[in-house]
Amino acid sequence: MIVATVRALKYHGGVELADLKSENLAALDRGVVNLERHIDNVHNRYGLPCTVAINRRAKTPSMKIRLLIDRIAPHDVRVIAATHFAHGGRGALELAREVVRLCDEPNGFRYVYEDSASLWDKMKAIATKVYHATDITADTKVRTHIRQLQDSGYGHYPVCVAKDQVLLLHRPETARRAGAPRSQHS
Description:
about 190 residues, mainly alpha, 2 domains, three-stranded parallel sheet
């Protein structure tokens, strides 16, 4: 399940934080590119079926939900407007049924990297395959620490790569606007 909000998608579409409450279907439409990237990762990188849950606020107009459903339709993924915040469990019943249905579907799950890869190569695989980075870099101190971890027997463990919310699609102007440093890895 990929969870999204109309506000987050508008932000990814270029709307300033202070203006997220205003109507802006064009920005919502532009922001869907970020959601499409996540769908692509789940389907093509991990080989899994998925659904998109839109955390729908009580006042979210149905035209915004319709826009999202229409934009995501070519990806063969259901978009479900979940209203659990306003309606409790009843507001997420359709979503829960879809998740159970997807769990019963055959899938081609695969990892992004091989277990036998080094810690550095695992991080690079995530950065390049999931986030579409061209490469990763680190200063000598960080690389030495990673090498020490590898040499100490930790290389067989999986890695977790954290990113901030504005760096999936490289938009330096958004990163700066949000106060984040520019990424060398996107």
